Amino acid sequence: MLGSGAAHPVRFPSLGRAPRQTPGPGRARGAVNPGQYARAVTPEQLQDVVATDVRAVVDRGALPVEVPADVVIERPRNPEHGDYATNVALRLAKAAGRPPREVADVLAEELGGHDG
After folding, report:
1. How far apart are CA 56 and CA 53, in angstroms?
2. pLDDT in the model for residue 94
């Protein structure tokens, strides 16, 4: 979530999928590899994961903000920017008194603890 340098959203390029393999000879860049995903992940499932992790970060005092009532997960316009994106770091940055990139880094660290 997070183009033009105005904000750095948290991206989830690997949640729910196996590592990408580089295309072999004759394969187009960005072609989907069979078995690329370890399991199906829906935007609704990611919303739950992100909301839970925002709560965890707030509960441990890493971000002095209120937990948002909703978390938006969407597909980036440019597929090279990952599978899903959220603007939650941008939304929380002002209240946290920190740049969006720092908030995104705190959230990414929490999200990195998940398998997939």
Report:
1. 5
2. 95
